[in-house]
């Protein structure tokens, strides 16, 4: 099967998913989007209000900031990467996804990774980092900017754009820039 057909199959399963409580309150699923041959996959935690309304990942203020980071630091457009989340439905009140919700959704993410075959994964924030590695002991403040490996794919954790929007210090800006420069170096 072609990548497009495989991704469409996963998206269809996500759209029809009833595996956890998040499906009961969702407006739209947010499967992911982007270049199916992307070298870089970006993984967030879950959709917010704007994302749930539009059915697309990172379309609110965090998405605008992410697009800016991609352009400034990696010289890439949004269309050059594949963007998805750990969970595909919005948790109520923007709460963190619960472990059982992550457990029900992680197989979709793993299939997306298998289909896209990125050379690098960037995780955005604590929840994406902990969920991808199934390890709640991981701390984004300790792990950001440090390469890890997931299924033989290099993973670089960095801060979530929403965190930066809440705490836009010069130190956080430098940290994110430094992290993305590491990605730029590795992808060359």
Explain how this protein is built.
- Residues 31-181 form the Uracil-DNA glycosylase-like domain.
- Its EC number is 3.2.2.27.
- This protein has 188 residues and is of the alpha/beta class.
- It has a single domain (3-187), classed as 3-Layer(aba) Sandwich (Uracil-DNA Glycosylase, subunit E).
- 48% of the residues lie in helices and 13% in strands.
- The chain has nine helices and six strands, in the order H-H-E-E-H-H-E-H-E-H-H-E-E-H-H.
- It has helices at residues 3-15, 22-25, 49-54, 61-74, 99-116, 125-132, 140-143, 161-166, 170-187, and strands spanning 33-34, 40-44, 82-85, 120-124, 148-150, 153-158.
- A six-stranded mixed sheet has the order 1-3-2-4-6-5, with helices on both faces.
- Helix 1 packs antiparallel against helix 5 and helix 4 crosses helix 9 (170-187).
- It is globular.
- 42% of the residues are buried.
- The model has no long low-confidence stretch (mean pLDDT 95).
Say which CATH homologous superfamily is assigned. Answer: Uracil-DNA glycosylase-like domain
Structural class: alpha/beta
Tally of DSSP β-strands? 6
Query: Which stretches are poorly predicted, pLDDT < 50 over at least 5 residues?
Result: none
Content of β-strand? 5-15%
GO biological process, one term: DNA repair
GO molecular function: 4 iron, 4 sulfur cluster binding; metal ion binding; uracil DNA N-glycosylase activity
Enzyme class: hydrolase
Pfam families: UDG
């Amino acid at each position: 099967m072609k990548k497009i057909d495989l991704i469409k199959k996963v998206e269809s399963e996500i759209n029809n998913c009833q595996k956890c409580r998040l499906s009961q309150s969702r407006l739209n699923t947010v499967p992911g989007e982007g270049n199916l041959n992307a070298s870089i996959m970006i993984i967030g935690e879950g959709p917010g209000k704007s994302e749930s309304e539009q059915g697309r990942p990172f379309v609110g203020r965090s998405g605008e900031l992410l697009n800016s980071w991609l352009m400034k630091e990696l010289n890439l457009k949004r269309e050059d990467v594949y963007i998805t989340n750990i969970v595909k439905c919005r948790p109520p009140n923007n709460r963190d996804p619960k472990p059982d919700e992550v457990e029900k959704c992680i197989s979709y993410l793993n299939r997306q990774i298998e289909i896209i075959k990125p050379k690098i994964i960037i995780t955005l924030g604590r929840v994406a980092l902990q969920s991808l590695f199934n390890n709640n002991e991981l701390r984004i403040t300790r792990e950001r900017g440090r390469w890890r490996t997931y299924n033989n794919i290099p993973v670089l954790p960095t801060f979530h754009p929403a965190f930066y929007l809440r705490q836009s210090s010069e130190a956080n800006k430098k940290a994110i820039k430094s992290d993305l420069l590491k990605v730029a170096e590795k992808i060359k």
